[in-house]
Amino acid sequence: MPVRNRKESGTAERVLDIAERLMQIRGFNNFSYADIATELGITKASLHYHYPGKAELGQALITRYTRRFSEALADIDRDAPDARAKLEAYVDLYAGVLRNERMCMCGILAAEYPTLPDAMQSEVIGFFDENQRWLAELLKAGDADGTLKFTGRPEDVAQGILSTLEGAMLVARPYGDLARFAAAAGQLMAGLTT
Amino acid sequence: MPVRNRKESGTAERVLDIAERLMQIRGFNNFSYADIATELGITKASLHYHYPGKAELGQALITRYTRRFSEALADIDRDAPDARAKLEAYVDLYAGVLRNERMCMCGILAAEYPTLPDAMQSEVIGFFDENQRWLAELLKAGDADGTLKFTGRPEDVAQGILSTLEGAMLVARPYGDLARFAAAAGQLMAGLTT
DNA sequence: GTCTATAGGCAGATAGAC
DNA sequence: GTCTATCTGCCTATAGAC
Q1: d(Cα A136, Cα A153) in Å, to the nearest integer?
Q2: Cβ neighbours for A180, distance < 8 A, ≥ 6 positions apart
Q3: Who among residues 24-53 of A has its Cβ near strand D, under 7 Å?
Q4: CA-based nearest residue to A180, from B166, B94, B66
Q5: Of A42, A57, A122, B189, which is most buried by a Cβ count within 10 Å?
Q6: What is the per-residue pLDDT across A4-45, written as a single tens digit (0 to 9) for each?
Q7: C-alpha to C-alpha distances, B154 to A41, A96, A163, A171, B56, nearest whole angstrom
Q8: CB burial string B92-124: b at 16+ within 10 A, e below
Q9: Domain B6-192 is of which CATH architecture?
């Protein structure tokens, strides 16, 4: 591991930035070390110093993505006034990804799932699990504070919310149409108000 | 083009059968002519006689898939007694795909969308368009016959239904868990009853 | 940390015999 | 229609100099 200062944006981190964008657009199997090297202005061989293999790079990408996502959830928990506002902020997290013309990293990896290295598969599952846990707690809070209405187990509804948002991103992207995502998201929110 | 009898399962058709399964599991960029050739027991070179390039093969796969899907929709229109029953049959189409441990072909292609040949991109869009058209008509019928309740434009709700089902398949597959899909689908149906 | 050079494999594709 | 043989290109990865 290269030694780095705390706040510095070292090469290893810049590699992740570039690879992250490529992976969220093309998926894990459709970008190469050459793509990253060209964009970063170093050689392919140098990349192997920071990430010995593509599997390690892929794992590092999911780990950082999941950590940042967790931090965003913590921010929402801190800032939003009630459960409904938290859910709106959560939906907006997804919209933000699409606005950058990207797909949710774990959504695109779910499509490639059977072709992924084992370690990456586990991390994808972990991402979904964490999201569903957070959403289930949110739903319980929304039931308690009266800002969210639903029937059935919170865990099942949480699965449904995650599925709907991932699917809305997936289908919206070929159309390049934010409104398509917004329509599905609006419908989702409406269903939790009734 | 090879000459074939009407009902015969010629080599070209068997190639599609094998490639279809591979594509619905791994996606377009993650199977090779070698995979098909090995499974079929012929050489890679022979495949090029039936489909000159991978782009042509990919296009043929979507075309056949979309045609069969359309036929299934026509069957539903003919057999199901009311709009709600039709929607249930539609959801069961998706569940059937997942039961075979596959993903919707166009769902998985949506994830790879930016990397696909132009002709394939158009066909993916066409598949989604046709599904949404059919669903929108279904919703209007359900509104008329009273078996489906919803608010908003039928076109938007149709988008939401398609997104939810695609997303439910996408997220359920890493878990290998049919129940996960069923939960999301059940929630979807419940939302159209209220 | 980054480089040059190269290995070794697999991809899609083509020529031409049968 | 299917074969053998081959091509070219890209991929991940490694060795070793600087």
Answers
A1: 9
A2: A168, A171, A172, B159
A3: 31-35, 44-45, 48, 52-53
A4: B166
A5: A57
A6: 544 456 999 999 999 999 999 999 999 999 999 999 999 999
A7: 50, 26, 21, 17, 35
A8: eebbebbeeebbbbbbbbbbbbebbeeebbebb
A9: Orthogonal Bundle (1.10)
Q: Using the 8-state DSSP alphabet, how is residue A113 labeled?
A: G
Identify the residues numbered 153 to 182 in chain A whose C-beta atom is closer than 7 Å to any atom of strand D: none
Q: Which two tokens stand for residue A161?
A: 């919310």
Q: What is the pLDDT of residues B23-66, one digit of tens each?
A: 999 999 999 999 999 999 999 999 999 999 999 999 999 999 99
Nearest Cα of chain B lies from the Cα of A7 at a distance, in angstroms, of 34
Query: Nearest CB to B107: which of A112, A170, A190?
Result: A170
B95 touches strand C (CB under 7 A): no
**Those residues with Cβ within 8 angstroms of residue A52's Cβ, 6 or more apart along the chain or in another chain:** none
What whole-number distance in Å separates Cα of residue A166 and Cα of residue A163? Answer: 5
- Count CB atoms within 10 A of the CB of residue B32: 13
Place of tokens 């899909």: B181
Q: How far is the CA of A34 from the C1' of C9 (A)?
A: 17
